[in-house]
């Protein structure tokens, strides 16, 4: 059994002086020196950083039970539970307790059922309808019409409307000012994400808690707004829910919760309201969806030859008589490959949510490293997606790397693209997001062409994410196809 390598820490501060923003880039450079797994000390905290797909799989999948805890000391986790209450928090902030098990099981069943089995295919229909409406909002219905806009806000509203439609359905009508409150909540979630990314020095040195008081208070305000919104959503749903209903995602939550209680009577009872504590996390994902889609658009502008190849494939498979459907996915390998390559190349998600070793652990496989109980364990997705042992020419944008020799999507490469993490603590909404983004992106690429506004396009990396060089976002959108059923 070997000790995990890593840079030599200084007294008191550890390696804090060596970590620059964003940390994923610092860790990537450290991995080149110390190897794919190394430890770094941030004050008194031991952090184990996983920089390869194999290491991440070993820790979070093969030994997932041993690395499934969350750190109770992290400010963001503590504030979530403080404001929302232990009973109303979602799966992200919990360790793997009985409550987590029920929430996770019900959520997974509800999402899969609604996408794959629900009557009338409302999930797909909602996305296609909103994508078409978004294209109409941008440029109208006439082929050749164009505009120059920043699509950020309209795209965010589109995704928010989608989430509201299939998660809540007509329950929205029983909540005063639902659309306005949802938009405000999403905007606040964007701010909260920025606060969390800026970090809390008191997580490393608790005696410096006073330095982050203003950030903590702002997070409390945002979380309080979300808690009130969550309560109103639950009350409105309870007033209209019919036992056994599966018309919306939230209906499925309630129905599958009742079924699970019958299947597992020996487990401690978990209130339905607690199970529905996951719902705000689904809405908070709107921000990441918006960023992911904007990255897709920017890459299509920056690599116009790729955009034209996607549009050609879409036209060849879908034609001009309809919009793409998820059934077309098998016939659109290049279109889907572009989506994965944007995720990989842009590193739109830098790292996993931190895990904690629940006991003294020996990381198995070929590693044989001892990891002490309480160690923070995080996957550096930036390094994983730039690993030259897995990705040929990792810094180049090459969508065809995801196409196998038979012309199909390479499932091994897809598996190596880990933006949702892996194992029992992987993103609970992954099943949603993959399909949602594929349909939204393929439909809008089918209906519209995206270009820069005529000025010279320069791009830069900020925190590993591709953004316009001057900080502005002005895109020329041209209608190329007429909307059809």
UniProtKB/TrEMBL annotation:
<dbReference type="GO" id="GO:0020037">
    <property type="term" value="F:heme binding"/>
</dbReference>
<keyword id="KW-0472">Membrane</keyword>
<keyword id="KW-0349">Heme</keyword>
<dbReference type="InterPro" id="IPR001128">
    <property type="entry name" value="Cyt_P450"/>
</dbReference>
<feature type="binding site" description="axial binding residue">
    <location>
        <position position="427"/>
    </location>
    <ligand>
        <name>heme</name>
    </ligand>
</feature>
<comment type="similarity">
    <text>Belongs to the cytochrome P450 family.</text>
</comment>
<dbReference type="GO" id="GO:0042446">
    <property type="term" value="P:hormone biosynthetic process"/>
</dbReference>
<keyword id="KW-0503">Monooxygenase</keyword>
<dbReference type="GO" id="GO:0005789">
    <property type="term" value="C:endoplasmic reticulum membrane"/>
</dbReference>
<dbReference type="Pfam" id="PF00067">
    <property type="entry name" value="p450"/>
</dbReference>
<dbReference type="InterPro" id="IPR036396">
    <property type="entry name" value="Cyt_P450_sf"/>
</dbReference>
<keyword id="KW-0256">Endoplasmic reticulum</keyword>
<dbReference type="InterPro" id="IPR017972">
    <property type="entry name" value="Cyt_P450_CS"/>
</dbReference>
<protein>
    <submittedName>
        <fullName>Cytochrome P450 1A1</fullName>
    </submittedName>
</protein>
<dbReference type="InterPro" id="IPR002401">
    <property type="entry name" value="Cyt_P450_E_grp-I"/>
</dbReference>
<keyword id="KW-0492">Microsome</keyword>
<dbReference type="GO" id="GO:0042448">
    <property type="term" value="P:progesterone metabolic process"/>
</dbReference>
<keyword id="KW-0479">Metal-binding</keyword>
<dbReference type="GO" id="GO:0005506">
    <property type="term" value="F:iron ion binding"/>
</dbReference>
<dbReference type="GO" id="GO:0004508">
    <property type="term" value="F:steroid 17-alpha-monooxygenase activity"/>
</dbReference>
<keyword id="KW-0408">Iron</keyword>
<keyword id="KW-0560">Oxidoreductase</keyword>
């Amino acid at each position: 059994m070997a000790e995990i390598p890593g840079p030599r820490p200084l007294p008191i501060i550890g390696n804090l002086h060596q970590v620059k923003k964003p940390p994923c880039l610092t860790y990537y450079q450290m991995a080149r020196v110390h190897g794919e797994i190394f430890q770094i000390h941030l004050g008194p905290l031991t952090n184990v950083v996983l920089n390869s797909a194999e290491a991440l799989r070993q820790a979070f999948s093969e030994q997932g039970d041993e690395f499934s805890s969350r750190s109770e000391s992290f400010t963001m986790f503590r504030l979530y539970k403080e404001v929302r209450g232990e009973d109303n928090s979602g799966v992200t902030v919990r360790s793997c307790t009985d409550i987590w098990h029920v929430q996770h099981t019900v959520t997974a069943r509800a999402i899969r059922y609604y996408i794959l089995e629900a009557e009338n295919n409302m999930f797909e229909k909602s996305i296609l309808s909103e994508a078409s409406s978004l294209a109409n909002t941008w440029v109208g219905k006439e082929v050749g019409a164009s505009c120059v806009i920043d699509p950020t806000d309209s795209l965010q509203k589109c995704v928010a409307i989608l989430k509201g439609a299939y998660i809540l359905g007509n329950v929205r009508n029983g909540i005063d000012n639902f659309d306005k409150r949802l938009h405000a909540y999403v905007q606040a979630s964007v701010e909260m994400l920025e606060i969390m990314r800026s970090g809390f020095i008191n997580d490393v040195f608790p005696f410096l808690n006073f330095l982050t008081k203003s950030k903590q208070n702002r997070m409390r305000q945002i979380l309080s707004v979300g808690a009130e919104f969550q309560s109103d959503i639950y009350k409105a749903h309870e007033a209209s829910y019919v036992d056994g209903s599966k018309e919306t995602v939230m209906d499925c939550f309630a129905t599958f919760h009742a079924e699970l209680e019958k299947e597992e009577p020996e487990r401690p009872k978990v209130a339905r309201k607690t199970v529905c504590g996951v719902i705000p996390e689904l809405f908070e994902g709107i921000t990441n969806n918006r960023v992911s889609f904007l990255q897709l658009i920017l890459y299509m502008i920056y690599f116009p030859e790729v955009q034209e190849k996607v549009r050609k494939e879409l036209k060849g498979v879908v034609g001009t008589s309809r919009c793409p459907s998820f059934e077309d996915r098998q016939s659109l390998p290049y279109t889907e490959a572009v989506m994965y390559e944007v995720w990989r190349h842009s590193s739109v998600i830098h790292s996993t949510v931190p895990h904690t070793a629940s006991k003294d652990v020996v990381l198995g496989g070929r590693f044989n490293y001892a990891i002490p109980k309480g160690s923070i364990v995080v996957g550096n997705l930036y390094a994983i997606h730039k690993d030259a042992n897995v990705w040929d020419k990792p810094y180049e944008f090459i969508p065809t790397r995801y196409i196998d020799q038979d012309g199909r999507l390479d499932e091994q490469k897809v598996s190596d693209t880990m933006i949702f993490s892996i194992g029992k603590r992987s993103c609970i909404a992954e099943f949603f997001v993959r399909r949602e983004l594929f349909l939204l992106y393929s439909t809008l690429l089918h209906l519209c062409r995206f270009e820069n506004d005529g000025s010279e396009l320069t791009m830069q990396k900020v925190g590993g994410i591709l953004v316009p060089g001057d900080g502005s976002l002005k895109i020329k959108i041209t209608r190329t196809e007429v909307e059809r059923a």
